[in-house]
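Annotated sample (chain length 290).
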Amino acid sequence: MTSRLLTIALVWAALGSAAAAGQSPIDTVHEFYADANYEAALGALDRLDPPAAVPVAIEMDQVRALCLIALGRASEADAVIERIITTDPAFEPGDDIPPRVRAVFDAAQRRVLPGMARELYAEGKAAYDGHAYADAVRTLERSLAVIRLVAEEDEASLTDLRVLGEGFVELSRAAIARAEPPPPPAAPLAASPASAPPEPPREAIPIRQDMPPWKPPAAADRFTSGFSGVIEVDIDETGAVTAARIVDPSYPPYDALLLETARAWRYEPARRNGQPVKSTRLVGVVLAPR
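Output written by the structure step:
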């Protein structure tokens, strides 16, 4: 009890001295830690106001975790480290952290990140189902970013989640694009009395429009009628595809693969008055059941 009272008195005296000298209180915490006075460092942290800036909060939590590890309070340290990772999934402790302590941070990331990725995916999918497509893109991209941080040996368990997340991001972006108002139509050109009658317009003609292979998962067996959808592609004057959008989704993982494949399609460009012009083409997709 006497030792604890002395520690509290030391903390108050140190914080008062830091304030009088214009020193940041967090600097005092670092000094306690550097002197291996871990109890005093924890006491000083407890007496600081919660910071508004996220980097400062993470810095304080890192020092707190290091002190708890040094004092053998492993479960408390794990809770603090998990809070750091939840705030900043890409957090990396400093290079001066001992390997034993770094291993504690690495283990916490392996424990926290997969669950965090799944929670973000569920939140993003719920936003997609509620037609909040901008929120869906933002949250699903956070889920994909977390998956990329997962340790390589754990990433295989999240492969399906990554494919689904990428598919719903593309679908959400396509829905956002469809909601944008179309450009106003161009004013018609007055025909010259002496000009020849214009040639009839011609749509783009496929040269290469191969579909990616369809490998239905086991779960698709219950859909006896298969899946169908529509993809829309923009084609420039050379016949190259400049953009692709899912208009009517078929099956999310396949839609994501289809969007990637469609960007390599080639066409004989559409023509108007004999000249190649930009155009848009709808392509139907039918996926047969297994």
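Annotation: The chain has three domains: 2-88, 109-178, 205-287.
Annotation: DSSP finds ten helices and seven strands in the chain.
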